[in-house]
Amino acid sequence: MCSxxxxxxxxxxxxxxxxxxxxxxxxxFGLAVERIGQAVEINPDSAYFCxxxxxxxxxxxxxxxxxxxxxxxxxxxxxxxEAYGNLGNALKDQGKAxxxxxxxxxxxxxxxxxxxxxxxxxxxxxxxxxxxxxxxHYLTALRLEPGYDGVRKTxxxxxxxxxxxxxxxxVVKFIEDCLASSSIRYQSLAPIAAAQxxxxxxxxxxxxxxxxxxxxxxxxxxxxxxxxxxxxxCVNQDAELEVILTRIRxxxxxxxxxxxxxxxxxxxxxxxxxxxCFHNEFVFWADADEKxxxxxxxxxxxxxxxSGECVSGDVERLLLVFGMYEPLYELACASTLQEMALEAxxxxxxxxxxxxxxxxxxEEKFKENFETLGNIEDAVSQAVRSQYEENPYPRWRFVPxxxxxxxxxxxxxxxxxxxxxxxxxxTVQMLSAGCGTGEEPITFSRCYSNLDVLAVDLSxxxxxxxxxxxxxxxxxxxxxxxxxxxxxxxxxxKFHIVLSGGxxxxxxxxxxxxxxxxxxxxxxxxxxxxLYSEVARRYLYHAREKFEEMNLPLNTENMRRFRxxxxxxxENSAWRRLLNEYDFYSMSNCRDLIFHVQExxxxxxxxxxxxEEQDLEFLGFVMPDEKVKxxxxxxxxxxxxxxxxDSWEGFEELCPDTFARMYVFWCQKRSG
Length: 672
Prior knowledge:
By secondary structure, this protein is of the alpha/beta class. It has helices at about 1-10, 15-25, 30-40, 45-60, 65-75, 80-95, 95-110, 115-125, 130-145, 150-160, 170-180, 190-200, 215-220, 225-235, 240-260, 265-280, 290-305, 315-325, 335-340, 345-365, 380-390, 405-415, 440-445, 460-470, 510-520, 540-550, 555-570, 575-580, 585-595, 605-610, 625-635, 645-655, and strands at about 370-375, 430-435, 450-455, 480-485, 495-500, 520-530, 615-620, 665-670. The protein has an eight-stranded mixed beta sheet, sandwiched between helices.
């Protein structure tokens, strides 16, 4: 329609503006600037046209031009709230935080119910380290617009630095809403949720002695939606709350009938605590008397189920209490329970049976049905395989839902200096080398639609977990293969992309693994790698020394014993860093963190040498925290691409926690 108008009247401002807006929607930003710019030239007195031209310039990355268009719109229309907001955006993107805040607040003065402006102010305040103020604005935005998922995601990124000292119902409501969303990574909410739970119920172990557990408290926490959702969906990573949960579990075991009663709420809490213990792989310490009672409980359940007494309130409570200490899979009557209709049980019991029995049985069926690529003969590979057969890692459960996007566009946005290979426009052949339990390849498959993935791992147990999760999430473009990275030379194919996050540093010679993977890449192929940092993992030396002093063999029970010792001295600042690690709070993660059979650690210069040996070009680190990028650029402005690994060494020495998880980066095989 607009095009037809322009055929008759080429200088029709409204038609040109309309075509510019259509180009904006299609992300044709250059065309949008051209068309809306023409409309502004014809009608320079339109504040509306000027404002939309500012948006087009901003999308194109020209923030100075965007700001100037906003100022022109405001000269024409001083009460134009949207133009103040867009001016704030342009100033923020130029690094002018205070000026951005001033304009956002002017927009709010004109429209106090603008949730977007509250969110924008929160983002700037968060970038300035003013987390408490930022959270206030995020919460206000959500109160005004409860369905505003974008602000919810932004607020979650601030949560790790938000430490309220009092119980805040608005914060609890925010956490509950996030735990009900499918687009949030639930684990990021665990610290704040645990803190609010402790603040609400005054569950502080420093009062000395046992936490007082009575029927009133049990009734209250059983009805607490946040407490139940937290236990079901997160792994607790709060040292104080672990001590409390361990005592609550013990209280349920010692007198579960009087504490749980027959109420649905009591059963739901028991179920949630059983799921929590399963998800952390029963990492809580249990005293000798508890172990004896659990053994008696196990025999009682097996006798009653095999005698035909299955679905009853009494047996359900027995199963839930047992499920807080061991998976139902360990019961001799597991096959009998499997044969029963899941719907016959109460909903909260169904959840425990599904997770701790049926899913484990399903994984057992998968284990022997993987194609194997050669024999695993390397001694270190055998030891690593043994560890991950015993403790598949990580036992992830949720991947936030998100819109599928272009992998080429995503990489270009992360690394503007990258010349995106043409092969990313077609079907991308991807290898996940050391896929573990499948979180990495499945996450990529959910984000990007054009992938054909081969996922390889040493551990059948890990692969079985991965296959079950892929089926549950209806991922059909991943083929799983059992084998050693060292044997992948036998594959008669090449790949556009290789994923190997957190794998190479567990090989006897990481360079051998990198050589194999590099040879599997097409020219110009890309590799995603994760490696441990020497600097960031220094604090773990003390933990390993502590375990060695205990002079105990490495097994599950002694890892629990070690953790009990650390938790007992949790007020000691020497252990604060370890107790702040998410990996400390589940069995497989703790083993991977502290007790791995093989571990190499790197520095940026070592990474440089590591890549150059295989003619791989470093493209840049994946840095989810924009503050780190800004801090690096402030210190090394000459490295605009952020690819100078010598400079990164200097930065890491100044900021040793920068790569606390791992160095995660992309590199590219040179074409020449």
